[in-house]
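Format notes (please read before filing issues)

Several people have asked whether sequences and structure tokens are stored in separate files. They are not. Every record keeps both together, in the order shown below: the sequence lines, then the token lines. Line labels are part of the format and must not be stripped during preprocessing.
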Amino acid sequence: MSAERLLGLGMDLVEIERIEESMQKFGSRFLKKIFHPAEVAYAESQARPATHLAARFAAKEAASKAFGTGIGKSLPWLGMEIGRHSSGEPFLRFHAAGADLAKNRGVSRALVTLSHTRTHSAATVALLGQ
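Then the structure lines:
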């Protein structure tokens, strides 16, 4: 079995206030365009939902940077989902076009880290494969 190698690395930083403003201005339309229902449900179970949504927004941007594609047809917002293991560790799951892109690029694993302060959320994504 050969070792995995780093295929891509991306990082993003988001102002939580920007997500709060989008939530207020566009409501559920914004949430449904960017986030899977499980992401919204998790965020809404927390004291400050926008903090957790901003972290997931940052993770999706970081993944698009790791692929070098940006958000678009080959990697849409809903082509990926940030979940959380029972241990608290975040994970990245690809759907539809995102899953196709990951398969075509030889991605066998995606590692994700999330962090936040009172004003910002950040994420880093590493794509690993053969």
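For reference, the curators noted about this record: The mean pLDDT is 97. The radius of gyration is 14 Å.
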